[in-house]
Fold:
Amino acid sequence: MSTTEFESQNILPLSKAAKIAWKSIRIRFLRSLLVTGGIILPIAFLMYIVSSDALLSNVKELGSVQLIEQLRMEGILTRLADTDAKIQTRWMVGLALLISFVGILNAMLMSVTERFREIGTMKCLGALDSFVVKLFLLESVFQGVVGTTIGVALGQVLAFGEGMGIYGGETWTLMPAAQFVRLSGTCLLVGVALSVAGAMYPAWRASRMKPVDALRSEI
Amino acid sequence: MTNDAANGTGSTELLATHVARTVSVRKTYHLGGEPLHALQGVDFSVTRGEYVSIMGPSGSGKSTLFNMIGGLDKPNEGRVYIDEVDIAALNSYELAWLRCHKVGYIFQTYNLIMVSTALENVMLPMIFAGMQQADAQDKAVYLLGKVGLGDRVLHKPVQMSGGQQQRVAIARALANSPAILLADEPTANLDAKTGQQIIMLLKELNEAEGVTVITATHDHKMLSISDRVAWLRDGRVERIRRRDELEITEGHADAKH
Structure:
């Protein structure tokens, strides 16, 4: 029982785990779609909020004199000072993310429960607990990356669409590329972190399953 | 009962040839506070290259004994040796190693990974063992050929019949050249003819390759080809019969088939 064998077991099956996780998503496509949808919406919301906030707060520095004057007349700039509304939207974003987290947790728990035999079988074949953990975390990361990417894109479309209505053609100058990348990156990170966090407990539970469960002939 | 005594007091020179051995194994489960004595002092050993069947009604402790021999469960009292390794002394890593290298499992419900092809299923234990992808693939193709599925290497479980799935499972169980092939009711979900074919395949592997086969079964077809049959009742080994004794005392069981 040399340690090298265990080391190789930790490196080699990662691609295998990724492959199995990917196929598991495809075979449960509809449920994966629901989970992914549950990530898309809050992340789109988050992206929309941070983008439109950024656009508004950039107006004073980057906007033309005519635009600032026009916005002041329309009373839109007073929104900058409205801290109550800001706190309220933060709460809503937070709640949306929390609901999404619970959704992921629930879906992954279901995925673990219905695959008890598959997990037990893998453990009978010599899978380490860490392999089972990887399997479920990867599955969730895949869903998270796909869902978040779509969510970020959707949020941007909404924020810039709304921006076009308010700031007209100047919208594009109000968001410097660096800030745009930074905001999108942050949202992407939040989404993936959410997926991993939601899958942690289910993955741990799966890894603790006993191999003897594979022998049970009924659920 | 004389057989039991002989098994319990196995002399030291015999031990080296024992691929699985239990010594006064006791196992008690607690279900809702009520203790359930699944095994009440079982001494049982299996010699390398043997074909052994364990029979017994449900609740006899058959499954528990079977799980112990497979390294899936630990006893409360007594010792279980697999290839002369005391499983009680192993941590979870070492147990995973043991299951990977020493025991090949065949399940009643085949338990193939549904999303993977036959080839990938057979390769999986070798990947777990740290074998290189190319070597694992070559061996998997060879093993699938040996169980008669050379032309279905890239089929998925859903595209195969029960008998074919069980053949894939047998190839998978053989992947890391285990010391024991452990089959839990391998024919229970198959029709009589396919079941017979699976039994013959197991027997063939046992005779040609010297693989030790241990099965838990209700299937009387299994009796006639087993080297030894152990009957369990109420957590104890009721009797053990060699095949030659079987044909005299339990001839009617054989005559059925």
About this structure: The first helix of chain A runs from residue 3 to 11. The mean pLDDT of chain A is 87. Chain A has eight helices and no strands. The CA atoms of residues 44 and 152 of chain A lie 5 Å apart.
